Amino acid sequence: MDQNNIDDIYRDRVILDHCRNPRNTSLLDHFDLTGDAINPFCGDEVHFQIGLRGENLIERIQFSGDGCAINMASGSLLSEAVTGLTVKEATQLSIRFVESMRKPIGENAEGEFIGELSALISVKNFPVRVKCALLAWSALEDALSKNKSTIEPDSLPM
Amino acid sequence: MDQNNIDDIYRDRVILDHCRNPRNTSLLDHFDLTGDAINPFCGDEVHFQIGLRGENLIERIQFSGDGCAINMASGSLLSEAVTGLTVKEATQLSIRFVESMRKPIGENAEGEFIGELSALISVKNFPVRVKCALLAWSALEDALSKNKSTIEPDSLPM
Amino acid sequence: MFDVEKIRDDFPILSKTIYGNPLVYLDNAATSQKPRQVIDALVDYYENYNANVHRGVHTLSMEATDKFEDAREKVSTFINSESSDLVVWTRNASESLNLIAYSWGEANVHEGDEILLTPMEHHSNLVPWQELARRKNAVIKFIPMRGNGTLDMDKVDELITERTVLVSAVHMSNALGTINPVRELGEKAHQQGAKFLVDGAQSVPHMPTNVQELDCDFLVFSGHKMLGPTGIGVLYVKRDILNTMEPFLTGGEMVLDVSYQEASWADLPMKFEAGTPNIADSIGLGSAVDYLNSLGMENVRTHEKNLTTYALNRFKKADLDGMDLFGPDDPEIRGGVFSFNTVDVHPHDLGTFLDRKGIAVRTGHHCAMPLVRSLGVAATVRASFYLYNTEREVDILVDGVTEALRYFRDGSE
Amino acid sequence: MFDVEKIRDDFPILSKTIYGNPLVYLDNAATSQKPRQVIDALVDYYENYNANVHRGVHTLSMEATDKFEDAREKVSTFINSESSDLVVWTRNASESLNLIAYSWGEANVHEGDEILLTPMEHHSNLVPWQELARRKNAVIKFIPMRGNGTLDMDKVDELITERTVLVSAVHMSNALGTINPVRELGEKAHQQGAKFLVDGAQSVPHMPTNVQELDCDFLVFSGHKMLGPTGIGVLYVKRDILNTMEPFLTGGEMVLDVSYQEASWADLPMKFEAGTPNIADSIGLGSAVDYLNSLGMENVRTHEKNLTTYALNRFKKADLDGMDLFGPDDPEIRGGVFSFNTVDVHPHDLGTFLDRKGIAVRTGHHCAMPLVRSLGVAATVRASFYLYNTEREVDILVDGVTEALRYFRDGSE
Ligand SMILES: Cc1ncc(COP(=O)(O)O)c(C=O)c1O
Ligand SMILES: Cc1ncc(COP(=O)(O)O)c(C=O)c1O
C-alpha cells in the first residue's frame, strides 16, 4: 500500500530514525541544569540534563523520555540541535521553533529550519500532534530558565 | 375579516356570553361547601360556594373568578350544569368532563355533552387553553371533596 | 446594507402561513428564528465532520475540534472579550447564572452579605440568588423602579454598601424592553468593591456588546435568542475572577489528571465544561455570530430602534381604549419589546385571537412574575421584534389588537 | 430486518473519504454518527415550528411543546420508565451525574457514608463522587477487578455495608467493553438499603434497556452516543427518590410561583429543567429513538455481538506480536469496544497511521485515566463499533494495525 501519506510526518524516516535510536541518551556525570516536561493526557515525558562550558555554552546534553515517535524524535533532534549553542542561542532557537510550530500552516516555510529540525516542522501537517513535538521544547525551556540568575538579562526569553 | 377561525373557540358566542355575563355570581347567605383553584402561571382564579339540600343535593352554587374568557365561561357554565345535581352526579360529571377534555381530539364526540357544556368541549381545539377550561372543575372537585365524610363511599371519585 | 426583505429570505420559517395567514413572528424575546446559514452549519457538521472533540487524533475529530474552538473565538470576538478562554459554553443563560451562583457564589457570598438586583430580573437572574442567599443567610435588595419602568438610579448609591458583594442587572428587560444603564451601575458596584454581572440575554442579540467597555465581571446570554440553535449558552467571566473559581460540573473533559483518589483541573475554559460539549450547537452559534456580523450589530440596533419608534407611534395613534403599554417611551432606552394589558380582554384571549391571524405573541408573566404582578396585572401580552421584522408587521399587530378589543368587548366584527 | 448496507445509506457521513480512503468510523464509544432521519428532524424543527416551549399560546409554540414532550415520551418508553415525568433532560450523561451528586448527594450523603464504585468508571462517574465525598467527608470504595477486566463479584457482599448509601456502576465500560452484571449489583445494593445508579452511556445505545427490570434508582445516558444530536442527555430517577430531590439549577421554566422573596417549584420533570431547554436536540433524540426502535435494539445487540466475535477471532488469527487486547474475551459480556496496546508502537503513532488510511480510532485514556494506568500503560488505542459497522471494516482495522506494526518496527512496508 501507498505509504506516502504517512511519510508526510515520518518524512525521510528522520523522525522514525531518531525515535528508534534516540541520540544523546547517556547520563552525564556532571550537569548544570535539568529540565522536565510531562503531558498528563498521553503520559509522554521528556527529561534533559545539560552540562555547560563556562556559564553559557551548552557543551553536553542528555535526553531521556517516554512516549510517541514524535515526542522521542523531537527530544533527540533537539538535543543535537542545541549542542554547541550558547544558552542565549538555544533560548532563541526554542522561541523561534515554538512560534513557527504554532503559526498556521503556510505562514512560514519549513526552510526556516535547516537540517533535521525541518523534519520536525512538518508535524504541523498534523495539528493534533503538534503538542507531541513541543513537549521536548518545554523541557528545554524548563532547563534554561533555571539558568536565569547566571545569564545576562538580555538573553532572557521575552 | 373572517372571524370563523376565532369562532371555533368562542362558538355560538356561548363562551363569550358566559364570560361577559357570568351566571350565579350572587354570594350565598348560607353554604355548605367552598372550593377554590388558582393557576399561578396566568393568575386565573375560580371560587365556588355551594349550598346543599340535605346532604347531597346541590341546590345553589355561587361562582366568582378572575381570568380569561374561557376560565370565566367555564366557571359560569359549570355552575349552571351542576345546579340540581346530587354531589355524586356532579362528581361523575366532573370526572367525565375532565377525561373528555384530556382525550385526544376526535376520540370522543362533543355530543357527549349536551347543551352549553359542549361549547366548552370545543376548547380542545386549542390544547394550550384546555387548562383554562379545567380550572373551574378543579375548584368544583375541591368543594365536593370536602363533602367526603358526609357522602356514601361509592360516590367518591376514583 | 441592511435590507430587511433580503434578510427575511434567509429565514425559511418566515414564509410559513398560520391558519392561512402569513406568519408574523413577534415572540423574539422568547426565542429567535434561525437563518438558513445556521441550519446549514448544523447539517454540515453532522454530515461532514461529526466527532467528539479534543484529543482525538483522527481527521474528523481534529476538524470538529478546530471548528468548535473557532466558534468560541467568534463569540469571544463578538463581545470583545480579551481572550476566548474566558468564554465558557453552557446550555443557556440560566445555566450560566447558576454556574456563577454555585461556583463564585458559594465561595464569595457570606452571611449578611448583600446582593443587589433590579425588580425587572428574569426568574433566572433572581431565583439562583434567592437560593444562594438562603444557603448563606445573605440579603437580597432591589433598586426601586420609576413609573415608566426605568431604574431609579438616584437610589443606587445608598443601596450599594460595603456589604454588597454583587450587583446583577438585566441589560435589556424581556418584560418591559427597558435598557438599563449598566455601565453606570457597574461603576457604582466597583466603587464599593462589589462584582458586577450583566444579564445580556436580551441585549447581546440586539445591540453591540463590548465587555471591556462595559467593564462587567460576568456576562451571560443564550444562543437561541440570537439566531443560534437551542441548547447553547455563554458565560463570560473576567480572567482574575475565573482563575479563582472552582469547577461547577465535574467529570470528563474538564480534568487534567485523575487518580482513584482525586482529580486536578484542566485549563480555562475547559475546567468549566464537563462531559461531551454541545459541539454542533456551539458551531451553530458561531455561524449565527457570522450572520449578525455580516449585518452589523449597529445596523441591527438601528433597525429595531426605528421599528420601536414606529410601533410606539402606531399604538399611540390607534389610541386603544383601556390599553396599557408598559415600559419607557423613549426608543433610546427601550428595545423592541411591547408588553401591554387591556382592560376587559384577558391576555390569553388576546393571544389566541392574534394567533388565529398568524401573529405569534407571548402572553403571561414572561418569567418575571413579581415584576408583572407589581404592574397590577397577572399577565401581559408581549410582542417583541427582531432584525427580520417590518413596519408592515407592526401594522398587522396594531390592527389585530384593535380588532380583538372590538370583538371581545361587543362581539361585533 | 437488520440490513447493515441499507442502514449505512442512512448515514451521510459514512460515504466520506479521508485521504482518499473510505471513512472507517470506529470511534463510536466517543460519539456516534447520525442518520439522515435525525438530521432532518432538526432541520424540520428549525424550518417549521421553532419556538420556545411551554405556556406559549401561539401555534408554533404549541407545536414545539407537543413535539418536545413527545420526544420525552419516546425516550421514556425506550427505557421502559413508568412515566415520562421521571425523564429529565440534561446536556449529557456527565450533567446527569452531577445533578444527582448535587441534588440527591448533598442531602443524602453524610460524614462516614460510603459510595461504592467500580474501577472502570468514566471520569464523569468518578470525579463528581470524589468531590461530593470531599465536601461531606464520605468514603469512596472500589470493587476489585479480575485480570480479564471483569468485576470480582465475590467481593461485593463484604464491600457493601450498612454505611453504603450509593452503589454506582457503569453498565458497559467505554475503555474495556466489559458488560457488568448490574442487575445483581443493584440487588446487593438494595439489600443493604443503598441506592443504585447505572451509568448507561455505553449500554443504552447498544442493547435493550429496561429500568424497571434493572430496578435501578438512577440511570444516566447521552443522546450523542445513540445516533442523537450533541447537547442532549437524560436522567431517569425512580419516582420516590425524584420526589424528594431539591432542584439543582433554578430560574425560568422550573418554577411554579415566584415573588421577590422566594420561589416554589414546578411539577416533575420541569422542576429539574431551568431555562429554555435544548428543544431541537430533544426532538432530535426522539427521532434517534424512533430510528433505533425501527431496527430493534435486540437486533442492534446481536449485530454488534457478531461483529465482536468476528473481531476477536480476526485479532487472534493475526497474532500480532506484542499486542495486548484488554477486556473479557466472551462476547456475551463484552460490547464492541476494542482497547489495545502495542509494545514498541505508541498509541498516538498508531492512531495517526490508521487515520491516514481512513480509520478513525481513539487513542488515549478514554476518560478513564486511573483504569488505563492500572493496565500498566499511559494510553491505549480503542476501536469501538456501532450498528453501521461491518466485518469488512473489521478487516480493514486488523490489516491496518498489522501494517502499522511492521512499518514502525522496521520501516518496511
Ligand atoms: C461510560 C461513560 N460514562 C459517561 C460518559 C460521559 O458522557 P458525556 O461525555 O456525553 O457526558 C461516557 C462518554 O464518554 C462514557 O463512555
Ligand atoms: C432577560 C433574560 N434573562 C435570562 C433569560 C433566560 O434565558 P434562557 O431561558 O435561555 O436560559 C431570558 C430568557 O427568557 C431573559 O429574557
What do these coordinates show?
The complex is a heterotetramer, with 2 copies of chain A (158 residues) and 2 copies of chain C (413 residues). Chain A has 158 residues and is an alpha+beta fold. Chain A has a single domain, classed as Alpha-Beta Complex (Sufe protein. Chain: A), CATH 3.90.1010. Helices cover 39% and strands 17% of the residues of chain A. Chain A has a 3-stranded antiparallel β-sheet with strand order 1-2-3. In chain A, strand 1 and strand 2 (44-53) form a beta hairpin. In chain A, helix 2 crosses helix 3 and helix 4 packs antiparallel against helix 6 (130-145). Chain C has 413 residues and is an alpha/beta fold. Chain C has 2 domains: 4-30 and 296-405, Aspartate Aminotransferase, domain 1 (Alpha-Beta Complex); 38-294, Aspartate Aminotransferase, domain 2 (3-Layer(aba) Sandwich), CATH 3.40.640. Chain C is built from 14 helices and 17 strands. Chain C has helices at 4-9, 36-49, 59-78, 93-108, 127-136, 156-159, 182-191, 211-214, 239-244, 279-295, 297-318, 347-355, 369-374, 391-410; strands at 17-18, 21-22, 24-25, 87-90, 114-117, 139-142, 164-170, 195-199, 218-222, 233-237, 255-258, 263-265, 323-325, 337-342, 359-360, 362-364, 380-384. In chain C, strands 4-10-9-8-7-5-6 form a 7-stranded mixed β-sheet, sandwiched between helices. In chain C, a hairpin with a 4-residue loop joins strand 11 (255-258) and strand 12 (263-265). The two termini of chain C are 41 Å apart. The model of chain C has no long low-confidence stretch (mean pLDDT 96). At the C-D interface, helix 2, helix 3, helix 4, helix 5 and strand 11 of C face helix 2, helix 3, helix 4, helix 5 and strand 11 of D. The structure holds pyridoxal-5'-phosphate (2 copies). One pyridoxal-5'-phosphate (PLP) sits between chains C (29, 92-94, 122, 124-125, 170, 174, 199, 201-202, 222, 367) and D (252, 275-276). One pyridoxal-5'-phosphate sits between chains C (29, 92-94, 122, 124-125, 170, 174, 199, 201-202, 222, 367) and D (252, 275-276).
